[in-house]
Predict the 3D structure of the following.
Amino acid sequence: MAALCNAAAVGTAAVATSVSPVKYLGFNLSSEMPLHRRATLCFVAAHRQSRGLGFPRLKLNSSARNKMRIKATTELVEHRGNVEQVVGPPKNLAVAEQPPKTDKAAGHSQRFLNVKTEEDLFRGIREEIEAKRLPASAAASMEEVLCSGDPNAKEIVISNMAVTFDRILLQFEDPFTFSSYHKAIRDPFDYYTFGQNYIRPLIDFRNSYVGNLALFDEMDKQLKQGHNIVLFSNHQSEADPAAIALMLETSNPNIAEKITYVAGDRVVLDPICKPFSMGRNLLCVYSKKHIDDAPELAEMKKKANARTLKEMALLLRKGGQVIWIAPSGGRDRPDPDTKEWIPASFDVAPVDNMRRLVEHSGVPGHLYPLALLCYDIMPPPPQVEREIGEKRNIGFHGVGISVASEINFSEVVAGIENQDEVKEAFSKTLYDTVVLHYNVLKSAIYGGKGTYASNSLVSLSQPWKRSSSASNVENL
């Protein structure tokens, strides 16, 4: 392993002093290529040479590569010292320490479950290609695995990537189909814990915050009374559900595991996303931004959305539900002028539909604005893409969530008679509140103010520090 890392370092350094592209063991490396990308490609090249693996680099167009790409957690090691000081509460920290139960799907190769080293990962990929269980396009991206000099990080990353590869392979052998309402799969394989374990090492808990923890405690009481809760939130990344759950798992685990997410079709169709989506409670819809991507399918998508609305209405009538929805219909993007990340504006229609469903459920309901800041751990592409299977980058950074006091519809729209203005006023109130809380999180995490960014409306805290299970962060 040391020899391979040294070889990768040599190749990476060779590019640093060259303006034109450098060819290293069959790879074209450009000085404009991100450092972590160069390092992983050099490592793959060195590994092939050392093991005598003569198979050529697969030539794929950008579309095919995007569909099957998995990025290794390179920035994770670059930004942290001791992994155990960073990842926060050690609840099921490494898959290797507490392996989740696995299913015995007929014909499923479990080749990756016994992986202990990078060498095992490469060998497993090669064997699955030869057995024709793994498409070459998927294998090409899976090879780009992390080369880490940090022994603490290596153990966690290898164990997590091994299980991830196994779950993705299963999607090609036996693809899972989501229903309109999907309940998190916890047995025989615990997909929820799997998703938590994968995202946990990407979060810098030392620089992460929860706003208004007391309101989450209030929600817990409301849920126990059978009330419904709706969280109107901005949407930052595919890692949002895990980020929210990880922020709450020590203080409010019931909410962390109980949330049902209104999810777009992309996270339930992309084979790279599906294993992570399978561990969440989902109400599956087709996003308004993509409903007309294929005009011939538009009517089918609208009917599917109608079925999901019926499922949602049935859930709310039962009571005791907490539903997360992003009324923007997609992920936030940077402002084109300032390049600053801001919550995307809310669409009035989903806000009004959700409010009316809660009101007509016959069960007490509570509407809360929720701000979420986590784009740096898994940022979306710069522009909205029509095609399923985007390029994915991941990083290590602080994240935050902050909830505001529930919004009373009647109080907000009092005195407004025009129904369109009523809808607009309520949606704007929710959005403006989310932006206010988002800016406090931004000041705490990116402005370096920490809990001092708190104000009269937002009280920031780090609940994992108060947990007896968080002994590994007590000295931070």
Q: What stands out?
A: Residues 419-445 form the longest helix (27 residues). The chain is about 45% helix and 10% strand.
